[in-house]
Predict the structure.
Amino acid sequence: MLHIKKQRTDPEVVTKVAEIKSTSAWKNTSVGETEKIRDFFEQLPKDKIRIHLLQEQHYLCAYCMKRIQDDPMETTIEHWFPLDKDKDKALDYKNMLAVCRGGATLDLEKGHKRELCCDASKGNSEIKINPLNEIHMNKVKYTREGIVQTGDESLDFDINNVLRLNGIRDENGNLICDTSTALLKGRKMQFKRVLQ
């Protein structure tokens, strides 16, 4: 994970958000009405949002740092703070991140085992670790084995149990299996290349 510095919101997005928020439908929607809130989010110019997110993140997933592209089949717009828990943040660009699909699109019929990571694993969970928080990101370290850790119990909980950035582990911390996107394998290979 790397610290992400948010850029200015695209004027077209700002205009659309203001338009949505001025409607009686928006004003009459309550926190927890997830489908209604998601419908409002779907009205935003998502192609424009996605490209801006990708540019400010250098085309890397906000969580696992896998290279991602401007393709809605490969990259999704994630709400760091879940949209069903704060309707205003559902439309707030500062709450949005570009993330990979986390193994959710792998074809199970072709024998792939689906062990999700990133947003696909997180779902609507609230997490403490935040790629927008420089203090959090300065704590992130990688071991030779490809393990990401911070030394902070609550942040490491999110990394291991919610985002599953270190694969699936047993109660003793031993690796049971990598994620579907082979995060650990990729990190180990990269570390070996750097050493050569």
